[in-house]
Amino acid sequence: MTALLHLKEVHTHIGAYHILHGVNLEVQEGEVTMLLGRNGAGKTTTLRTILGLWRASRGALHFRGAPIGALATPEIARLGIAYVPENMGIFADLTVKENLLLAARAAATADALDKARLEWVLSLFAALKKFWLYPAGKLSGGQKQMLAIARAIIEPRDLLLIDEPSKGLAPAMVQNLIAAFAELKRQRTTVLLVEQNFAMAKAIGDHVAVMDNGRIVHTGAMSDLADNEALQQRLLGLSLGVHQ
């Protein structure tokens, strides 16, 4: 099977710091790949390197078989890759409607938005419909996260890069996110997802890659990792069963 996204021996330096040390990673089309690891393992750096926000100092990055390592971030985004950062990156002074319109490159006005797709997105995140004309800065943390993901999918994307969407959210809001990701899976949306909530990882992940010290140290089926507590302890220093 040819991977949608392929990283081979990718190294990334940030200033004097060598963060990624030869990352090898494949993301298969139509599946959710979880990127797990302890804090500081290099997960966020991997996402940002894929999008060109930080430049790989060595190695190769391919998307649909074409090299992207030398492309600027806007060029990579135009290939169909969307990024939801850990800080969500929403425009607090703009309304929910305006935030979504900015992300919909093909629509100059709200009336020009793809109505069927908009309704589908709002069906995933019902609160956004309720607060359609509210400034995004007044939303709750969970609602802001919903808006950040909604912006990423308001137009069809080939790959979503999402960094810790459940961080700091109440359990009920996490369940809402799990339900939304389950629907994205049914739509065969390709996702590379960094997540520390292991119940969420188990619920939605197809494949998993575990990072440690800037390297991928394990790849396989998410279900296999979820069922192997000894492997969890060795790779992550904890048991998923404790985090259900």
From TrEMBL:
Signal peptide: none
GO BP term, example: L-amino acid transport
GO terms of molecular function: ATP binding; ATP hydrolysis activity; branched-chain amino acid transmembrane transporter activity
InterPro entries with a match to the protein in the record: AAA+_ATPase, ABC_transporter-like_ATP-bd, ABC_transporter-like_CS, BCAA_Transport_ATP-bd_LivF, P-loop_NTPase
Residue ranges of every copy of the ABC transporter domain listed in the record: 5-238
Keywords: Amino-acid transport, ATP-binding, Cell membrane, Membrane, Nucleotide-binding, Transport
Stored PANTHER family: ABC TRANSPORTER ATP-BINDING PROTEIN, HIGH-AFFINITY BRANCHED-CHAIN AMINO ACID TRANSPORT ATP-BINDING PROTEIN LIVF
Family: Belongs to the ABC transporter superfamily.
UniProt name for this protein: Branched-chain amino acid transport system ATP-binding protein
Organism field: Variovorax paradoxus
